[in-house]
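Lab manual, section 2.4: Encoding a predicted structure.

Procedure: take the sequence of the chain (108 residues), apply the prediction step described in section 2.3, and record the output as structure tokens. A sample record is shown.
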Amino acid sequence: MAWLILFVAGLCEIGWAVGLKYTDGFTRLWPSLFTITSMVVSLILLGVAMKSLPLGTAYAVWTGIGAVGAVVLGIVLFKEPATAARLICVGMIVTGVLGLKFFSAAST
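Recorded output:
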């Protein structure tokens, strides 16, 4: 269950990372409220997941989900470049996150 909570926390992190782009420096009300809410929910869920997951693993997986999601949505929503080098780097992040998940599962 902790891994599912951590995954949802990572999705919320993607939400606030992308939301920051829409807040226009926190000058737009609704995007700002969405972003702040996503931040709070993400941190609360991360804290809950860390009750039973190792700190380093949980934090790395959380940030990895957020980083990959932000890159993918940056490409889709904001027309950021999808170069081979960027996609290879994203693949390495995904590989690292999956490795941490699978190698930590045996110890928790």
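Check your result against the sample. The mean pLDDT is 94.
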